[in-house]
Amino acid sequence: MNKFTLLILSSFLIIGAVGCSNVARTSRDAPTTLDGSVQNPQDVRETREDAESKIRQAQLNADIRAREERNQWSDNELERTDADLQSEVRAKLEANIPRGQLTVKAEDGVVTIVGVVPNQKEYQTIEPLAKEIKGVKAVNVNVEVVPPTPTKR
């Protein structure tokens, strides 16, 4: 019985450690940490197709709307948890910069964004989009512009 209990407890610990992440990513190709790098920054086709789908756009909008409505009921609308800020900024960036491979981390209202985008225009929209989220005090952008390579057909 003790071995079984130990097995169950260690399984929960492993799942908890693997499942917890302290950053929010706009795509599976985005860095997993703030000091990480993108594996294939030129390959943005698959990420874009997912982010631009109508279903995904509806999911992102519903997520943002639900968090906004929940936060309206709090005493101070501008006080958000770091997790809420990360999620809202990530959703905003994913919806508006579908070809970006970005990672978002929030700490005490300061949002740090790392990763790659395919052009300067999308790079210039990162900070203004992040600042649209209530509770964001400052934005640090450490994003590279890497043009995509042409896809082979």
Automatic annotation (TrEMBL):
- Please list the residue ranges that the record marks as compositionally biased, kind Basic and acidic residues: 43-55
The record's region (Disordered) falls at 27-55
User: The organism sits in which domain of life?
Assistant: Bacteria
Q: Which UniProt keywords apply?
A: Plasmid
Q: Where is the BON domain?
A: 81-147
Q: Has the keyword Transferase been applied to this entry?
A: no
Q: What is this protein called?
A: Transport-associated protein
